[in-house]
């Protein structure tokens, strides 16, 4: 008996010592554990949500490593909650945080197998593992998990624990929490999940990556969970059988992004203002300026144009910007025909890339010209001319290599004639025009040493966004607004970080000057000799101002135009700057996109008209444009000289004299309203311009003979 008593005493002593030792270890480990209260106080990474201007359409969620949106437990359908309970912890509402039998069973299994693969984790333990502790598998960490789970069960109610759990658990890829998983895999909020979808997500939790890549295994585990729900009394056998008929397939819809180029443009602006961490983890709500319907239409039209006309015309890309001219809001931004097309660098946002604008820059030069005192009626000879420069002679030619002779500035602009446009820029002055361009919002023309007279034909590079914004200033009668992409930025707690306020904008052009340009750009009859009447630049009965542009060698095709409430700019070409086919000018490749988006964007809206300009009479024929139509002079029929008071009435004759001289014959470039320099002009371009005009006169006289009128009026009596 003494031996057995001693043995029993030894066992008892060892048991007590083990219990005391385990208790001391329990206390020692538990002493340095995180406070369970911090579960609700901690900052959980949440995705930033980008919405359209109505706040109804979610365009995208910006996130870092964790894409998460917090939702209350009440938003999760009860059957979905029960699917997770049956799958992971059917005793959840009965235990105190741990499953003692499960832990013992797991310890025995791990001891026999020599591994640590058996976890025996309750939902509370899974919450601790994902939200508080590191993921390594050690007995020490497991003990910490047990202690924290017990403390959490004492601190929080079961529903509070469930809510924390559903917002924390990973579902594969960057999806954390059930809301992100529902949106990513089923394209719907968690509140709309069906029983089959809820069971599918519950099946994924155990090993998300494995089940994402093995739909058969996912279906098998989902069906087992549905059977378990029947055994647990959560659903009927009929419910389970019906749910099993649904396909157990999850599709990653993370790439389903509306307005991708615009989204990442906004993301960059947000990060510059608030920092990357807040944008990716702060759960911001951003209401943008995007018009969802117009954006969708623009994307469809750009894509269709590249798919249908891109191959024969040899352009692989297109881009579009739509603005509200009254406030600068970006209503649509399409940076390429397909953001995900790596072959054509689809992720590049061409609306922000400098490209040569071709003739679409001409309206800006003519605006500066009219601001200097010239008018749409001023005659600028469209004849082949040598322009003298510091680096040699510049000899521009028209698109179709023709000459139109004396044309008004209105006709020259609408017909997109190159030679008069170069003359217009010279009359303005390159430096003065660059000052003007800066006032209109262009930022890419800062290196003035690079530019000469070819600038008006697209010799400088501009971005589609800034170019469209400049046209918006014309549409808004000279008042410029900075382009705006966001209406409101709020924190996860609904604190407002930014909210757009309407402003008067900045007047950069005289109202009548802007109206004058609009009057010219909306004159379809004036462009008919080049583009034909009723081209893609008109919108039926709706007044619209528009201009195309094409660069040398057909590398860029543009169309920009506007009504009082909508401005759209379109670019077409190739990102690598390769040429399109000959003839692929802006009116062919870009105008159809522009026309379709303008029509769609304005459908159902009232027809707006442009306010007409006041046409000033400057009192100088060269500026008013009365020289080219002839000068009526009363002459003496016998002498051919000017008639006097003494000339008999029967010998008086009103005769029309048409003379042909360059504009520099009548005006001083630096002082258009000053005295006429005539043939003594000291302007360095005068000789070349006048020679070109007289050579054209000689060719016309040889061609037409007496039918061509070129006669100087008499100056003596």
TrEMBL record:
Organism superkingdom: Bacteria
Principal subcellular localisation of the protein: membrane
Q: What keywords is this UniProt entry annotated with? A: Carboxypeptidase, Cell membrane, Cell shape, Cell wall biogenesis/degradation, Glycosyltransferase, Hydrolase, Membrane, Multifunctional enzyme, Peptidoglycan synthesis, Protease, Transferase, Transmembrane, Transmembrane helix
Give residue ranges for domain Penicillin-binding protein transpeptidase: 319-598
What is the reaction catalyzed?
A: Preferential cleavage: (Ac)2-L-Lys-D-Ala-|-D-Ala. Also transpeptidation of peptidyl-alanyl moieties that are N-acyl substituents of D-alanine; [GlcNAc-(1->4)-Mur2Ac(oyl-L-Ala-gamma-D-Glu-L-Lys-D-Ala-D-Ala)](n)-di-trans,octa-cis-undecaprenyl diphosphate + beta-D-GlcNAc-(1->4)-Mur2Ac(oyl-L-Ala-gamma-D-Glu-L-Lys-D-Ala-D-Ala)-di-trans,octa-cis-undecaprenyl diphosphate = [GlcNAc-(1->4)-Mur2Ac(oyl-L-Ala-gamma-D-Glu-L-Lys-D-Ala-D-Ala)](n+1)-di-trans,octa-cis-undecaprenyl diphosphate + di-trans,octa-cis-undecaprenyl diphosphate + H(+)
Biological processes annotated in GO: cell wall organization; peptidoglycan biosynthetic process; proteolysis; regulation of cell shape
Where, by residue number, does the polypeptide cross the bilayer? 7-29
* Residue ranges of every copy of the Glycosyl transferase family domain listed in the record: 58-229
| Annotated Pfam families | Transgly, Transpeptidase
A single Gene Ontology CC annotation of this entry is:
outer membrane-bounded periplasmic space
Q: Which Gene3D superfamilies match?
A: Biosynthetic peptidoglycan transglycosylase-like, DD-peptidase/beta-lactamase superfamily
Where is this protein localized, as stated in its record?
Answer: Cell membrane
Q: Identify a single GO molecular function assigned to this protein.
A: penicillin binding
| Family assignment from sequence similarity | In the C-terminal section; belongs to the transpeptidase family. In the N-terminal section; belongs to the glycosyltransferase 51 family.
Put simply, this protein is called Uncharacterized protein
């Amino acid at each position: 008996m003494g031996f057995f008593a001693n043995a029993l005493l030894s066992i008892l002593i060892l048991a007590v010592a083990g219990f005391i030792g385990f208790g001391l270890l329990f206390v020692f480990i538990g002493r340095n554990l995180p406070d369970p209260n911090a579960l609700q106080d901690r900052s959980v990474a949440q995705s930033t949500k980008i919405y359209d201007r109505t706040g109804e359409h979610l365009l995208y969620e910006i996130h870092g490593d964790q894409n998460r949106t917090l939702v209350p437990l009440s938003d999760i359908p009860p059957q979905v909650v029960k699917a997770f309970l049956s799958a992971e912890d059917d005793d959840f509402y009965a235990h105190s945080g741990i499953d003692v039998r499960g832990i013992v069973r797991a310890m025995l299994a791990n001891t026999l197998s020599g591994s640590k693969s058996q976890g025996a984790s309750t939902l509370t333990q899974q919450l601790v593992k994902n939200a508080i502790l590191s993921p390594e598998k050690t007995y020490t960490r497991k003990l910490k998990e047990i202690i924290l789970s017990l403390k959490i069960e004492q601190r929080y109610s079961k529903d509070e624990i469930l809510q924390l759990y559903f917002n924390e658990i990973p579902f594969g890829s960057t999806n954390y929490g059930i809301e992100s998983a529902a949106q990513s895999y089923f394209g719907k909020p968690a509140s709309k999940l069906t029983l089959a979808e809820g069971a599918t997500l519950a099946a994924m939790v155990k090993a998300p990556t494995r089940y994402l890549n093995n739909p058969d295994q996912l279906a098998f585990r989902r069906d087992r969970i549905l059977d378990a729900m029947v055994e647990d009394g959560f659903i009927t056998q009929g419910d389970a059988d019906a749910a099993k008929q649904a396909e157990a397939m999850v599709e990653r819809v993370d790439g389903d992004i509306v307005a991708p180029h615009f989204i990442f443009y906004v993301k960059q602006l947000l990060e510059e203002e608030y920092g990357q961490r807040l944008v990716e983890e702060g759960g911001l709500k951003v209401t943008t300026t995007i018009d969802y319907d117009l954006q969708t239409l623009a994307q469809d039209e750009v894509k269709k144009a590249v798919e249908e006309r891109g191959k024969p015309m040899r352009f692989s890309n297109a881009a579009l910007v739509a603005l509200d001219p009254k406030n600068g809001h970006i209503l649509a931004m399409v940076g390429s025909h397909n953001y995900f097309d790596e072959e054509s660098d689809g992720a590049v946002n061409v609306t922000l890339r400098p490209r040569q604008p071709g003739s679409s820059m001409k309206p800006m030069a003519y605006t500066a010209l009219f601001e200097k005192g010239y008018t749409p009626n001023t005659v600028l000879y469209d004849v082949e001319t040598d322009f003298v420069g510091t680096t040699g002679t510049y000899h521009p030619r028209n698109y179709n290599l023709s000459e139109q002779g004396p044309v008004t500035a209105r006709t020259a602009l609408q017909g997109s004639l190159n030679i008069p446009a170069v003359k217009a820029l010279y009359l303005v002055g390159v430096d003065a025009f660059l000052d003007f361009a800066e006032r209109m919002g262009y930022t890419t023309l800062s290196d003035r040493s690079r530019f000469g007279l070819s600038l008006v034909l697209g010799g400088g590079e501009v971005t589609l966004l800034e170019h469209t914004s400049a046209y918006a200033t014309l549409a808004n009668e000279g008042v410029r607004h900075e382009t705006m992409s966001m209406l409101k930025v709020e924190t996860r707690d609904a604190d407002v970080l930014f909210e757009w306020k309407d402003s008067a904008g900045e007047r950069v052009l005289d109202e009548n000057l802007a109206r004058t340009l609009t009057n010219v750009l909306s004159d379809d009859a004036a462009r008919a000799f080049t583009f034909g009447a009723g081209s893609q630049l008109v919108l039926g009965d709706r007044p619209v101002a528009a201009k195309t542009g094409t660069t040398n060698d057909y590398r860029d095709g543009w169309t920009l135009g506007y009504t009082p409430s909508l401005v759209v700019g379109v670019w077409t070409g190739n990102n690598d700057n390769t040429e399109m086919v000959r003839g692929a000018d802006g009116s062919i490749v870009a105008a159809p996109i522009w026309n379709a988006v303008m029509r769609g964007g304005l459908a159902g809206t009232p027809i707006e008209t442009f306010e007409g300009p006041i046409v000033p009479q400057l009192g100088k024929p060269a500026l008013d444009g009365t020289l080219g139509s002839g000068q009526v002079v009363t002459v003496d029929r016998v002498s051919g000289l000017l008639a006097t008071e003494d000339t008999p009435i029967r010998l008086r004759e009103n005769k029309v004299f048409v003379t042909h001289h360059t504009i520099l014959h009548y005006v001083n470039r630096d002082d258009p309203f000053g005295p006429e320099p005539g043939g003594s002009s000291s302007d360095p371009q005068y000789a070349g311009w006048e020679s070109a005009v007289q050579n054209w006169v000689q060719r016309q006289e040889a061609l037409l003979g007496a039918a061509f009128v070129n006669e100087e009026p008499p100056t003596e009596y």
